[in-house]
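Section: Multi-chain targets

For targets with more than one molecule, the full set of components is provided together so that the structure can be written out for the assembly as a whole rather than chain by chain. Components appear in the order listed by the source. The example entry contains two components.
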Amino acid sequence: DAKTTQPNSMESNEEEPVHLPCNHSTISGTDYIHWYRQLPSQGPEYVIHGLTSNVNNRMASLAIAEDRKSSTLILHRATLRDAAVYYCILRDSLHGSSNTGKLIFGQGTTLQVKP
Amino acid sequence: DAGVIQSPRHEVTEMGQEVTLRCKPISGHNSLFWYRQTMMRGLELLIYFNNNVPIDDSGMPEDRFSAKMPNASFSTLKIQPSEPRDSAVYFCASSLTSGNYNEQFFGPGTRLTVL
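Its structure, encoded as tokens over all components, is:
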């Protein structure tokens, strides 16, 4: 699985936008970019995923660079409940024939949100 | 939907004892994953099943660890004998393998302490 690089930690003020970067310079053409987050004392939860085009959902937006070597998770208005560890993960969409969705988690970015 | 159910939520045991962790995946999901999370090593995939069959157990630390999935609605992770270094939070996750969209849903975890 291709490797991702994220800052260890970031801070944000409540109700301001947050841009969480992720570098994946060795990404292959078939790798999807997934973001999960882990709130304190909980299991990880899915946030968003994309392949080439920018993606939006109710939780966040995902901006993918044209060369796909980096991406940015955007929280449009951070709340205190968004304080979590955010993981950027690459998953090969053509992994074998089983396509079981195996995810390899890195250390992620710990986001602190200040009131 | 009850989500992924794990039991027990907390387990404290003494070194050498057998420990059994249980997981009930979301109904209809056909992939199940066991993860372990520690401060030192982060979130590690131990083993995953697809259609009740173990696909990749390369993350299982050693022979003391074993996992089974006797049917689509139940899985166990057993440690025998347990050691203090096995202390961690163990997460179970499930997903519906369908094309390239395999969002994983995580349970609340079992916090294991081996004295």
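The first strand of chain B starts at residue 5 and ends at 7.
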